[in-house]
Structures are given as structure tokens and as C-alpha cells.
Amino acid sequence: MRQTWPATGEVLVWWAVLVAVDLMFITPVTALELLVAAGGAAIAAVAARAVRTASGAGLGGARRWASAALMWPGAVLGDLGRLCGVTARAVRGRSPEGSLKTLSLRSGTGAAWACAVLSATPGAYVVDVQGQEMQGGQRAVVHFLTEDRTRLEDVLTEGRRR
Q1: Nearest to 152 by CA among 102, 126, 114
Q2: Residue 93, Ramachandran bin (φ over 0: left; ψ between -120 and 50: alpha; else beta)
Q3: 78-132 pLDDT per residue, tens
Q4: 3-class DSSP state for residue 95?
């Protein structure tokens, strides 16, 4: 019984988020659209819970999440500017500069949320996470648009890109 409530709560949270996202993309919300959104979200919520349970994924350590949240808008704006520069150079015939690098995440920083925040910027996309959080020393393989570091990356990682 103890595990039933958390599982039910997780499915309900997934369901509510998925219904809300679905309804944001529908202009006239009719009863039929609401029924379809609720039914589809229920199926997807149960599947999301099953996938998360099977993968053993969790948010990980919450250290530095507030700093990362504060740095994220600046990282997005900075990366947007760099993306415009790369696009302009590509239009003139130069090839893009992107490359894969390995970063060491700071101790106590959860890989799941840290990688989601990094991937939510135009200049970086996390491809893989290596290592176990319990053993420390988690590394993330990230595709970067340019060689420029952001303050967000400094908050989440230790040292240089390799």
C-alpha cells in the first residue's frame, strides 16, 4: 500500500502535465477534444511511469539548482547570439564549428536535471551520461555549438571540456 500512493501520484502528475500541454495546442476545446486529451494522457502517463521505473532514473542531487536556474536565461540569450553567428557563417559557406566534449558534473549535481538544463539551451545538447551518481564522478558527453563556455556550464561542471 505504501508504494501505491507515490505511484498513483506520479501517474496523476504526468497525466495533468500531459493534458495541459495537449490542450495548449488546441484552439477550440470541445468536449470530444477534452476526452481525447484525457484518454491519451492517461495512456502516456502510465507509460512514462513504467519507463522511469524501468530505467531507475531520478532527479539526483539538487545542489546548485537555484544557481543553474538563475544562469539559464543568460545562457539561452548568449547561445542564441552564437547560433546567429554560426548561421551567418554557414550562409557564407563556412562549415559549422560544433564538437562533442566530455564534462565532469560537480559533486551533488543531479545528472537528470543538469543535463536537461544544458540541453534546453541553443548551444548545447547532452548525448550521454557516464558513471554512477552514488560513486561520484559522473560525466556528460555534450555536443557544443561553439567553444565558448557559459556561466551555466561553470555552475554545473568541474574543470574544462575534454
Answers
A1: 114
A2: left
A3: 999 998 988 898 899 887 778 888 888 888 788 888 888 888 899 899 998 887 6
A4: coil
CA atoms of 133 and 130, how far apart (whole Å): 9
Do β-strands 99-105 and 124-130 pair in parallel, antiparallel, or remain unpaired?
A: unpaired
User: For position 56, what pLDDT does the model report?
Assistant: 64
Whole-number mean pLDDT of the chain?
A: 83
Residue 12 parent element (H or E): helix 4-24
Single out the residue of 162, 114, 105 nearest to residue 139, CA to CA: 105
Give the list of residues 6+ apart from residue 28 with CB closer than 8 angstroms, or none.
none
Q: What angle do CA 101, 105, 110 make, to 5 degrees?
A: 125
The Cα angle at residue 120 between residues 114 and 121, in degrees rounded to 5: 110
Cell for 84? 546567429
Locate 17 and state its grid cell: 502535465
List, for residues 4-39, the tens digit of each pLDDT value. Answer: 778 888 899 989 998 998 888 887 889 999 999 999
68 sits in which H/E element? helix 65-91
